[in-house]
Amino acid sequence: MNTRNDHAALYTPIYDEFLLSTYDEYSQVHPKIYNVKEDDSKQVDIDDISGLGRWDETLEAEAGETEDPVLGYSKTYTHGKYTKTMQVSFEAVDDDEYALMKKQGTAEEMGIGARDRVEYDAAQILVNAFTVAGPDGQYGFDSDHPKNRDETGTTYDNLLSGAFSHDNLELAETAIADGMFTMKGIPIPITGKCILLHPTALRGKVKRVLSERALERPGTANRDINRFVGAGTTYDYEPVEWVYLNAAMGGSDTAWYIIFPWLGYLKFYWRQRPHFTSWVDEATDVYNFKGRERHSVGYDNWRFGFGSTGL
């Protein structure tokens, strides 16, 4: 004979399956741009540290100069907890033997909500990077990031300007070349894939600029060559549209971003992936099924990318 506790325990793995089926139903964007990791600690502390600088010319029979790395800026990732609970009364189960099974749709909706939480949080890091300070005390996208803790007089700029266009993308490449340096002042070569991240409203503009059929620059009277296709391409761009960047989601319909995921500075930590837990509340006569997950998301170095508000 099943007890009430048995009922809850019996349905928890079933609801887990329903939740995860909708959580994974649609492709998520954040794994394309974030370094996603598992973590079982209370929090993650990152202390950025430089490599070494340019080699020194050394005369014969001399030992040469020694050099120490310099510290960057620290970043702490603190895992947040996110939940949603559904309940089924004892009376519902007493009167309908399929009452628990009929909660499939609710469990599926909870999976959709879990996916929404994760994507929203990841997108907000970029949306807020124009107005919220990062580890170095500057906005994520700013014009005066200090070179390192010791050489604050030298600054670098990862804030782009202007609406997305062929010409502004060309200017962005110049800004990247001028601003991508290590904490020791060595240029960082852009050798990996560049994610050209944008909201839905810029879909047409991005496709027109990066389309393989755009052999001539769109929207210009002189029909100049579009250098972002074919042999004229400097970087390996992958356009990625993200609805969570839209103004309707608290973002902007004009902002656009160039992200370097291979550098690993954008991080998403899973403390606990979405799952169900359950218990019986005898005081209120209900079965409780709680969807639960824990994660943290952010960046520990501004060199994760460049961004423009589009204005």
Describe this structure in words.
This protein is an alpha+beta fold and 311 residues long. It has one domain: phage-related protein like fold (Alpha-Beta Complex). The protein has helices at residues 4-23, 30-33, 90-95, 104-127, 166-179, 203-210; strands spanning 35-38, 43-49, 71-78, 80-89, 145-146, 155-156, 193-198, 236-241, 256-259, 266-281, 286-299, 305-308. Strand 5 (145-146) and strand 6 (155-156) form a beta hairpin. Helix 1 crosses helix 4 (104-127). It is globular and about 90 Å long. The termini are far apart.
Question: Helices and strands in order, then pairings?
Answer:
Layout: H1 4-23, H2 30-33, E1 35-38, E2 43-49, E3 71-78, E4 80-89, H3 90-95, H4 104-127, E5 145-146, E6 155-156, H5 166-179, E7 193-198, H6 203-210, E8 236-241, E9 256-259, E10 266-281, E11 286-299, E12 305-308
Parallel strand pairs: 1-10, 7-8
Antiparallel strand pairs: 2-3, 4-11, 5-6, 7-9, 9-12, 10-11
